[in-house]
Amino acid sequence: MKVRLKWVEDASFLAQSESGHAVLMDGPTEGGGRNLGPRPMEMLLMGTAGCSAYDVVHILKKGRADIRDCVVNVDAERATEDPKVFTRIHLHFAVTGKALKPELVARAVKLSAEKYCSASIMLGKTAQITHDYEVIEAD
């Protein structure tokens, strides 16, 4: 896997993935940026949420669950001293479907957290990572 990052101006950088996608990252205005894109550390959290949500949806679909939606809300804290690593990350999954069994959702979240999500497992080396979920019945 390869990524290319190019400085654009001030605190703006354009990241390009090997798969051909680009994301503009920028800093806050008080840090010389123009607030045109997410911060690099926000990208880490977004990637972690995406990695874990992908796992949960894939596991549930593979088990033939009638899943309709999956939203992950992430709340994190960082160290106050440099390097300001993440010290606590909480992922809350809101999974919507028809007659979803809570124990299957719990199993999917656990498998992602403990076995499949490379991002959260890697970040778990410095941060305490917790997960919870809610099951929402689809209309």
From TrEMBL:
Protein name according to UniProt: Putative redox protein
Any Pfam family: OsmC
InterPro entries found in the cross-reference section: KH_dom-like_a/b, OsmC/Ohr_fam, OsmC/Ohrsf
Top-level taxon in the UniProt lineage: Bacteria
SUPFAM superfamilies from the UniProt entry: OsmC-like (SSF82784)
